Amino acid sequence: MGKMVYNFSAGPAMLPVEVMQRAQAEFRDFNGLSVSVMELSHRGADYMAVAAQAERDLRELMQIPDNYKVLFLQGGGRGQFAAVALNLMGKNAKADYIVTGQWSRSAVAEAEKVGTVRVLDGFEAGEGPRKLATSWDLDPTAAYVHYCPNETVEGIEYDFIPDTGDVPLVADMSSTILSRPVDVSKFGIIYAGAQKNIGPSGLAVVIVRDDLLDQACPNVPAIMDYAAMAKADSMLNTPPTYAWYLAGLVFQWLKEKGGVEAIGKQNQAKAELLYSYVDTSDFYENRVHSSARSWMNIPFQLKDESLNEVFLKEAKAAGLLALKGHRIVGGMRASVYNAMPIEGVQALVDFMDDFAKRNS
């Protein structure tokens, strides 16, 4: 066994070691069938049991009410930028989008192809690190209000659920789903690309309230049609079976860890460990307002940016991978999703402290 390596990639992100080990053990012989799970017919009894168990486990983890459908779809989170608009703008082609960063802006670009979008600033006015706004001039006749609870690029996260009254709230939870408890009943739709807290890239999970399944545009492609997919148990076409299987293993791992309440406490502790170090350092800084900081994606900058490349090279040699920040923000970014153990965050803090002492 080599040295311990911690992958801080924003996505595709690390999976739990236990999940990878189980998947490896089952890769060529699933349940004694002498074939891989990825070779099973998605309509056969053996795979249908895998799919059904994954849905049951996700429903249990998130306490999803019975009047919501759970869909396992293709296209990742970006595919849902278009799918949400196509499924909700059929009878009322206007929506409000609260924008706080790169991913909510990208969602706007897709929705504008379908209907009329009002873009609302997600921040309070002001200079310097900005607080998230808590209220907006929402259109009470809009088909829905969309927001991104956690922006991976900028490291910005809501610590509250926006109040949209009777207008359905739609959330892109790609980078925060399953990281802590959430009241699903406050949302019309929750969607998430899998490659951060659920499983491999390409899969998307959609949780949609039943009363919203008759709002689709007539030209919505069948593969994006939530009602059609719900009727077919997400198997209108051949789904990404191996990704769905791996997601199911992650759900089981989460249950073994005590569920989302237990993992939420761990995630909070990880974030507090790294933020606390950065805040007390005169070598590093975080430029996000303290009230809007993400638990999942923690950007930080070296005050002497000429040391960036040296930092990244030495971090990689120390087994700390994928710390380069997004090109829009620069600096560094540590993504600490559910699969990242607190030991990985401690190893990063120890390295950062050592690097600062050697380069101050």
Topology:
Blueprint: E1 6-7, H1 17-26, H2 45-62, E2 68-74, H3 76-88, E3 94-99, H4 102-111, E4 116-121, E5 145-147, E6 150-151, E7 156-157, E8 169-172, E9 189-193, E10 203-209, H5 226-231, H6 241-256, H7 259-279, E11 284-285, E12 297-302, H8 308-317, E13 320-321, E14 332-335, H9 342-359
Parallel strand pairs: 1-13, 3-4, 3-5, 5-8, 8-9
Antiparallel strand pairs: 2-10, 6-7, 9-10, 11-12, 12-14
Pfam families: Aminotran_5 (PF00266)
Subcellular location: Cytoplasm
Catalytic activity: 4-(phosphooxy)-L-threonine + 2-oxoglutarate = (R)-3-hydroxy-2-oxo-4-phosphooxybutanoate + L-glutamate; O-phospho-L-serine + 2-oxoglutarate = 3-phosphooxypyruvate + L-glutamate
Description:
Pyridoxal 5'-phosphate binds at residues 77-78, 103, 152, 172, 195, 237-238. One of its GO terms (cellular component) is cytoplasm. Belongs to the class-V pyridoxal-phosphate-dependent aminotransferase family. SerC subfamily. This is Phosphoserine aminotransferase. It catalyses: 4-(phosphooxy)-L-threonine + 2-oxoglutarate = (R)-3-hydroxy-2-oxo-4-phosphooxybutanoate + L-glutamate; O-phospho-L-serine + 2-oxoglutarate = 3-phosphooxypyruvate + L-glutamate. It is a single chain. The chain has 360 residues and is α/β, with parallel strands linked by helices. It has two domains: 18-256, Aspartate Aminotransferase, domain 2 (3-Layer(aba) Sandwich), CATH 3.40.640.10; 258-359, Alpha-Beta Complex (Aspartate Aminotransferase, domain 1), CATH 3.90.1150.10. Helices cover 34% and strands 16% of the residues. It contains nine helices and 14 strands. It has helices spanning 17-26, 45-62, 76-88, 102-111, 226-231, 241-256, 259-279, 308-317, 342-359; strands at residues 6-7, 68-74, 94-99, 116-121, 145-147, 150-151, 156-157, 169-172, 189-193, 203-209, 284-285, 297-302, 320-321, 332-335. The strands form four sheets. It has a seven-stranded mixed β-sheet with strand order 2-10-9-8-5-3-4. A three-stranded antiparallel β-sheet has the order 11-12-14, covered by helices on one side. β6 and β7 form a beta hairpin. α1 crosses α6 (241-256), α2 packs across α6 (241-256) and α7 (259-279) runs parallel beside α9 (342-359). The longest helix has 21 residues, at 259-279.
